[in-house]
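Lecture notes, part 5. Sequence design as translation. It can be helpful to think of inverse folding as translation between two languages: the language of shapes and the language of residues. The source text, in structure tokens, appears below.
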């Protein structure tokens, strides 16, 4: 059973009291674009759920999604866009059991492989598989091997046994940076490395936003199904709207007030970054609402245009990143 709403850490300290737990569940419901009443439903469901075993695989990656995962903290209230405590960390650590993660786990070598084998054996069809990084399929997969097996064979074997698979980051979605032209290793995302994989959820981004990942996992645990997905199997709540539609600089865009040079007056005053190549009008993501770095900021708020990192093959299709767009 999930040990909420008043959970303890290893030292016996209380992590989340009931009031904060209910508040967190309401915020997760809001992140998922669910009506407020779902907060209580999520709280009830989590209280009755077992912890979800998670196997996290890494292949051709920069570990950015793991870094994002480690920065799980306070989340923005999507309604008020303010920062609130406690963090999602407390909620997620009660919901999952991270049984295998090559970078974060204490065991290594044979012991790490034993942890993986134990999870596959003890929780067949019950564990969640998270995949980070691209899968090189060129030259029979020789460019990435783990424990003597290619990434391609591992991802095919392990995802087939999972209850669901979440491809985190653009690399695991469609190859990302590794697949950028000329794609020397034949890098693929999970959807192409394991064609027809059931229960696949794609969460692109460079990296994916951990607040979105937490919301998806909570939804899986609470309702035993993923949130509503689009045709690319991406959660609609996170990838359903263009950044430009809700950008805080849209007023300046609509009034032809564009930054023309880094550090110019418009840049200092927070004008629209379209003239500096911002790809917000072509990019689907909830970055302006969910934000980054403990929900404090996001690229455009920091003064840098969006480079379209949630879009397919953005390294090729969105480049050059700093080129002025025709309408600015
Ligand atoms: Fe749109 Fe980018 Fe300008 Fe924001 S900064 S209004 S996303 S073009
Ligand atoms: Fe990526 Fe653009 Fe968000 S670059 S992090 S989708 S603002």
């Amino acid at each position: 059973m999930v040990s909420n709403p008043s959970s303890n850490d290893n030292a016996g300290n209380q992590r989340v009291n009931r009031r904060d737990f209910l508040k967190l569940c309401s915020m997760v419901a809001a992140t998922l674009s669910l009506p407020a009443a779902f907060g209580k439903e999520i709280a009830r469901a989590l209280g009755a759920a077992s912890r979800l075993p998670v196997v996290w695989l890494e292949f051709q990656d920069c570990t950015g999604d793991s870094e994002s995962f480690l920065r799980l903290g306070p989340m923005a209230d999507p309604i008020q866009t303010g920062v609130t405590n406690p963090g999602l960390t407390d909620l997620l650590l009660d919901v999952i059991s991270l049984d295998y993660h090559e970078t974060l786990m204490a065991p290594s070598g044979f012991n790490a492989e034993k942890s993986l084998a134990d999870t596959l054996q003890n929780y067949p069809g019950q564990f969640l598989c998270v995949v980070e990084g691209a899968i090189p399929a060129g030259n029979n997969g020789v460019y990435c091997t783990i424990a003597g097996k290619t990434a391609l064979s591992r991802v095919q074997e392990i995802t087939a046994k999972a209850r669901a698979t979440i491809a985190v980051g653009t690399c695991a979605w469609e190859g990302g940076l590794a697949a950028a032209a000329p794609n020397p290793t034949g890098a693929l995302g999970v959807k192409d490395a394991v064609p027809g994989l059931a229960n696949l959820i794609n969460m692109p981004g460079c990296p994916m936003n951990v607040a979105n990942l937490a919301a998806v996992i909570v939804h899986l645990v609470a309702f035993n199904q993923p949130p509503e997905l689009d045709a690319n199997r991406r959660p609609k709540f996170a990838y359903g709207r263009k950044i430009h539609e809700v950008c805080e600089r849209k007023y300046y865009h609509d009034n032809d007030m564009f930054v023309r040079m880094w550090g110019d007056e418009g840049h200092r005053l927070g004008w629209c970054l379209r003239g500096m190549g911002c790809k917000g009008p072509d990019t689907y993501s909830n970055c302006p609402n969910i934000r980054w770095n403990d929900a404090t900021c996001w690229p455009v708020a920091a003064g840098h245009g969006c480079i379209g990192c949630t879009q397919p093959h953005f390294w090729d299709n969105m480049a050059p990143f700093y080129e002025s767009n025709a309408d600015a």
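The translated text above is only one of many valid answers, since several sequences can fold into similar shapes. Residues 243-244, 247, 249-250, 253, 272-274, 278, 280-281, 300, 305-306 surround iron/sulfur cluster (ligand 1) (CB under 6 Å).
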